[in-house]
Amino acid sequence: LGISNANATFAIPRDVREGGGYVVAMATDRETGKGGGLFVVGKNGEDIREKPTCYCDILGDGGVMTAHDPEAAKQVVARRMLSHLSVATADAAGRLWIGTKTSNGEAIGEVFCVENARKMIDGALVKVGVANDVHEVGAVTSCSGAAFHENNFYIADKNVVSKYAFDPNMATLSTVAATFERDAPISTMAVDGSGNLWIATQSGDAPKLHHVSSEDGSTISTVDVPLKRICGLAFARLGDDDSVRLYAAGEDDDGQRVICTDN
Length: 263
Description:
By secondary structure, the chain is mainly β. Helix content is 6%, strand content 51%. It is globular and about 45 Å long.
């Protein structure tokens, strides 16, 4: 897409009926690199160096949970200026959920739910309404992974995965039902069809891919992946192959790659 200089962190396919292309997470202030929003970008990255259309200013529009306290609200807004959008996932109803990280490692990141304007349907954002509704639903330190399975929502924060009970009708999370700790920082995460977790951890140039039980956090298996860094995991069915396989995106000595882990 040619977006390496645009502070982009992830891209989501956009419905072809709206012209295709992508919705890309970037800084809302291109000069300072601060803030975070979703921008519409053409399929070949056109308009990325101009001023792309801001589909949703996540950090600007996300409701401040302390709005009854003006001073606390100011602190939240200032804190968000140190954040960037880090991960995205969708629940079964197609609502988009966004996690954030912070650049200084001290301020608190957040998790937002975005709904009403567009839904994820068949792997693309489809327009279903006019206005976005952005809810702040919780705080994290550094969100590096988020995934749903049935009525559970998993959030990776530093080296811990938190499991929340999820109400799909109200789009709300309960208190934490369980936490699973790893021995190294988590770089990304995915959930398979059985509800178990695939967690990538990073320690120096030695990433590890762990297959983990979502019931008790125990390790089912560990997979060696020929990458120096794993930055994304996704299950997909490609071509004529009916099997759903786990693919890892990351980096090695030759640059960026996507490989099949043959799980």
